Amino acid sequence: MSTDISATEIVYPDTDGQPMGENSVQCQWIAMIAGEFFERYSKQPDVVVACDLFWYPVEGNPKIVLAPDVFIVFGRPKVGRPSYKLWEENGVAPQVVFEVLSPSNTDEELEAKLGFYERYGVEEYYVIDPETETYDAYTRAAPGEPLRAVRPAKLNGFVSPRLGVRFDTTDGLVLVTPEGRPFKTREDRVNGILVQLADSEATRQQEWQRAEREWQRAEREQLRAEHEKQRAEQERQRAEREWQRAEEKRLHNEKLSAKLRELGVDPDTLDGPGS
């Protein structure tokens, strides 16, 4: 019995062997943008933030692929993926894409990327030049409409419709969160963790000292209770000795009374010695 294999399995690579960024400045910007969104959406199970992840929009054609520097997808589960295959994601394309320019980028490459993102459903596309600290923005007026460049006059203070992020170009390029805070750099995040660690260590020391004081107080209470127990035992023993002495005296008196009765004298009629 033979089996015909009509088609070979299609391989969708998840890497091209190239580094995420070509220089430190580009890497810093990618890390800053991705890190901010990783943190912002960390507790939302239906938001995917990806960095340099291959995106395949067409099933059966692995040659149609791009790996955006950063992209965000709303409405898809936060699970591990070797790549983002559109047909496995209910057709939900990344809504927001960030590209950070490197010296090797060409105009033709940038035009091709813009065409790719427009064709396959990206709603907002941002191209950041880390050397000049400028950016270009592309948005759709409505679903199905083409991506259009935001006019230069509107770039300073432009707010992402999806993300609520504001782009401030007053002095270089600063990305500002909806709460009004500039995006954190890697150094900011490291310093923040160090501050949290120091605060945590200080809190731990305070809790340890408080526990030590409580332990010492409990130990003093235990010693006091033991002393009280010993004192109560001593009082009990003293009372028992008093009772024994009284009992011995009673028995002695009974013996004397018995002797008087043997002599014919009723001790109950006597007033006492010298009466």
Low-confidence stretches: 1-7
Count of separate DSSP helical elements:
4
Beta-strand residue percentage: 15-25%
* Second CATH tier, the architecture of the largest domain: Alpha-Beta Complex
Q: Report mean pLDDT, rounded to a whole number.
A: 88
**Given the C-alpha coordinates, what overall shape results?**
rod-shaped
How are the strands ordered across the major sheet?
A: 1-3-5-6-7-8
Secondary structural class? alpha+beta
Radius of gyration: 44 Å
Distance between the termini: 138 Å
Jot down its keywords:
275 residues; alpha+beta; tt1808, chain A; 2 domains; 6-stranded mixed beta sheet; 3-stranded antiparallel beta sheet; 11 strands; 40% helix; disordered N terminus; Uma2; Putative restriction endonuclease domain-containing protein; Nuclease_put_TT1808
Task: Give a description of the structure.
Residues 217-275 are annotated as: Disordered. This is Putative restriction endonuclease domain-containing protein. Residues 217-264 have a biased composition (Basic and acidic residues). Pfam families: Uma2. The chain has two domains: 24-152, tt1808, chain A (Alpha-Beta Complex); 185-263. It is built from four helices and eleven strands. It has helices spanning 24-40, 107-119, 152-155, 186-262; strands at 47-51, 55-56, 70-74, 84-85, 96-100, 124-129, 134-140, 147-149, 158-159, 166-168, 174-176. It has a six-stranded mixed β-sheet, with helices on both faces. Strands 9-10-11 form a three-stranded antiparallel β-sheet, with no helix packed on it. It has a two-stranded parallel sheet with strand order 2-4.
